[in-house]
């Protein structure tokens, strides 16, 4: 594959990881990503969540990996126009596409739904460098501190409610009902 045309400005790829897991669990996925990135012209952010100075300074309260990932993504988003945020276990299965093909400029954040249950997935998404996106990601990371003690689905569980609050803040009754259901799940 050749370089991708920068149709939407500078595009970055962000992968947050913990060193011990990277060494033991994500080798195949990361090698496929590395191979893909050699053939395109994207800015790459491989961020060690335990040792990155920016993350240690701004996301030091976050202890759970995925919440810390979203906090860290909010920091690095400032360096590009659009950023693809990936879980470290995400492999590239078809390298013949540019990230620009998946950017929908009508929204600052592009998520996808799981085909088997229509849940909005939290692992991989596109973010435009806007104040809304950076705040959304930072607040998403802060959900670590207010999630219920019961089973909660971690960052994916809170994402459903977080999107509802961000997109429809006037839907007070719906937000309250969603939050009540989420807190009662076992």
Helix and strand layout, with pairings?
Layout: E1 11-17, H1 19-25, H2 27-38, E2 43-48, H3 53-58, H4 65-76, E3 82-86, E4 109-110, E5 125-128, H5 131-142, H6 154-167, H7 172-184
What does this structure look like?
The structure is a single chain. With 186 residues, the chain is an alpha/beta fold. 41% of the residues lie in helices and 13% in strands. The protein has seven helices and five strands. It has helices spanning 19-25, 27-38, 53-58, 65-76, 131-142, 154-167, 172-184, and strands at residues 11-17, 43-48, 82-86, 109-110, 125-128. The protein has a five-stranded mixed sheet. Helix 4 runs antiparallel to helix 5, helix 5 packs across helix 6 (154-167) and helix 6 (154-167) runs antiparallel to helix 7 (172-184). The termini are far apart. The mean pLDDT is 92.
Q: Tell me the strand order in the biggest sheet.
A: 2-1-3-5-4
| Strand content range | 5-15%
Number of helices: 7
The geometry reads as globular
Q: Determine the fraction of residues in helical runs and give it as a percent range.
A: 40-55%
**Helix-strand topology string:** EHHEHHEEEHHH
Poorly predicted ranges = none
